[in-house]
Design brief:
4 strands, alpha+beta
């Protein structure tokens, strides 16, 4: 499981120029069943993604395809989490 932090960079003002492509990137992540949750970092610091179901290398490649990342609107940090315990609703995140 991964948490991707997308923190605004010095090109934050260009976000509106790449918003359509960024939203398409998010949509693909959900369609591919990799993204579980996407949301904003508060207060106005950028965004975050909870991802699952692909390797770190594949996720890094996916993140680099985000127009916000490619155009330096955000900087990406990928945190890998190896879940040990979870609520039963999240059992699918635990290694079997």
């Amino acid at each position: 499981m991964f948490v991707v932090l997308l923190r605004f960079s010095e090109n934050k003002d260009q976000a509106s120029d790449f918003m359509e492509g960024h939203n398409q990137w998010i949509r693909r992540g959900f369609e591919d069943k990799v993204f579980l949750v996407v949301g904003s970092l508060q207060p106005g610091l950028g965004g975050s993604v909870l991802a699952h179901g692909e390797s770190r290398e594949a996720l890094e490649s996916r993140v680099n395809q985000d127009p916000f990342v490619a155009e330096n609107v955000v900087t990406a940090e990928i945190l890998e989490i190896e879940p040990k315990k979870a609520d039963e609703r999240l059992d699918f995140l635990l290694a079997k």
